[in-house]
Amino acid sequence: MEGERGDAVVPEGDLSVLLRVQARISSVLDLPTVLRRVVEAGLELTGARYGALGVVAADGRDLEQFVHVGMDAATVEAIGHLPEGKGLLGALIDDPRPIRLANLSEDPRSSGFPAGHPELRGFLGAPVRIRDKVFGNLYLATSEPGAFTERHEQLVVWLANVAGTAIENARFYDTGQRRERWLQASSDTTLRMLTGTPVEMFESIARSVLELSEADVVTVIQPAADGESLVVEVAVGAGAEELMASSYPSAGTLTKHVLETGTPVVVDSTRDRLPQPLSVYLSAVVPVGPVMVLPLVGTVTAKPRGVLMVGRLRGRRRFDDDEVDMASGFANHASIALELLEARRDQQRVLLLEDRARIARDLHDHVIQQLFAAGMGLQGVAAGLAGQEAAQVERIVGQVDEAIRQIRSSIFQLTPQRFSGQLRKAVLEAAAEVTPALGFSPDVGFSGPVDLLSDPDLTADVVAVVREGLTNIARHANASGAQVLVSGTTEQMTVTVTDDGVGLGEVGRRSGLDNIRRRAKRRSGTLSFEDRAPGTRVTWTARVG
């Protein structure tokens, strides 16, 4: 064979067979089907018993995919893990030229067979190229020595060239299909953001990425309020329950690097390349290998609001450039959609505050003054009466005074508080966010010096509890009213969420509440449910300090 590509000279009489083989391979655009048909064609053209196509990894050293034909499921299971491109298989990776052996056991490059593997003798291998770049290698083998001839080698080299073109077309088609799915997911995510809460949106984003990237685990990670640690806000896929709401130091982590640079990072193996802190909080829970870390960057600020960490289990193929590009675009689109959602809610909140301020002014300037004048008039009437009639008028005056006090209390609640504490403000904002989904405004109250007792991290937990509790009521309780009470002592912070609905049920108790249960556990607190008639009371506690 001459020439670096080993171009085949097709023997006479084989043209009709080759045309049929070429048509069969080129008639499909599904990449896994194309790869399998290439191997099947190799068996047909050479009479080989076993065949495989190994896809070379991006590092050019190992195999990341191995499509095999000729072994039954029991044999494959007995062998265990698939080849990684060592020994004779690795020789074609190191030197991509055709190899034909009469008896591979006599070749010094052969590394033998694992237990349960059929005994192989004849061997024929050829590289599969796409635009002069090696995509993978086609391997054929028989149980008899000397079974492959020069004619077989020519046919296999020809097949490898045909395969390269078919694989390239299939990859173009696959990339186009994947881009279309990512674009559709971006559109669907934007529509879902019109009604959901931020946590629900993050979960929706994570689930979309999990499915579209064929990953095993996806987490949304954000900086904690203390600036020194990172918090897993959402986790879906493998190990999600343990990862959710966990936190870890940010120093020296890949996540912090992406947050600071705003640039996606891809690693092939967390075992070899990720810094130790990240290995503890991700790899210790899920044995991930390939990982991509994507910044959530919007338009309001260049600094990412968080990252998407997408992982596949150890041993699975790496994320290619197209996957990283598409996932990054989706993450950025989702971040912009979140910004639009928050801007719309801020606008609604401003309109609500303006409306409340107007109502407060009207109550103060008109209603209270009219009630006060009526009370003064009644007192004047009472002065001219005696006995039981005077006492009755005085009771009415007292009721008017009580009404004035209640209205003044309402005015205070309606008026925006410029100096309200961070926890109170955050809880009220969280309740306002869920109000459209509830269909009514929940009653929110506070007891004790909650602002003084709470730090930024505890505030974040309390807000999450309020949001999740009210969201569950909106989803499952069919309630007409809900109450939130946040109370604090020097030892404990307590959040109580009560509704008058039909109850949450088992689905409602599981939905979203696993997150706040873990938050309580992390703070040496508790989460409890109390069925009432009607409704349910959810009580969450956390240790202060």
TrEMBL record:
Q: SMART domains in the record, alphabetically?
A: GAF
Q: Which GO terms describe its cellular component?
A: membrane
One annotated GO molecular function is: protein dimerization activity
Keywords noted in UniProt: Kinase, Transferase, Two-component regulatory system
Q: Which CDD domains match?
A: HATPase_UhpB-NarQ-NarX-like (cd16917)
| Residue span(s) of domain GAF | 30-177, 197-348
Protein name from the UniProt record: Signal transduction histidine kinase
